Amino acid sequence: MLILAFDTATDVATSAIVADGEILGERITRPQLLLADVEALLSGAGFGPSDLAGIVVGTGPGSFTGTRIGLSIARGLGLALDVQVAGVSTLDALASVAENAFPVIDARRGEVFVPGPAVARPGDVVAPAGSICVGSGAVRYREVLVARGAHVPSDDSPLHLPRAALHAALATDFGAADRVEPVYVRAPDAERWTG
Question: Which fold has domain 2-90+162-194?
Fold first, then answer.
């Protein structure tokens, strides 16, 4: 089964093409480059869009705009290609990067997204004993988390990336493209200012 997977919920977009559990290609760029990444992955693996059996998209939480980019592309491709789509939480993908990984995603405004999903101030995050904090929030708030007893890998560690291949491995609930919903945790900024 040929799966295209991607996550654009953070500042770094990850994408992968996976066939029967084998990673055929991966890319790490920016959310705005996702369509070019998809084209490069498919052509690099010797496939075309019509060869896809499924699409997996990261549902967040993360950047509102980034999450919408990924979901819009997943829905558009799913509908155009008549391919089923599955959503996987960005937190779940990060939690699967290593044993005892505790995902912490930068939520901006001095906050982070953590399992629950929930939003919290970095100083209020309590990672389980023996865990390692991974993700963009762990990198940004390293000093605060370490002061609270957390272990955070080096900034350049691949453990901080919500790799799309992990999304593909976690996906189980494929269905109609338009039923995949984002995980926002809090209202978007535009809604907060106009409400």
Answer: Nucleotidyltransferase; domain 5 (3.30.420)
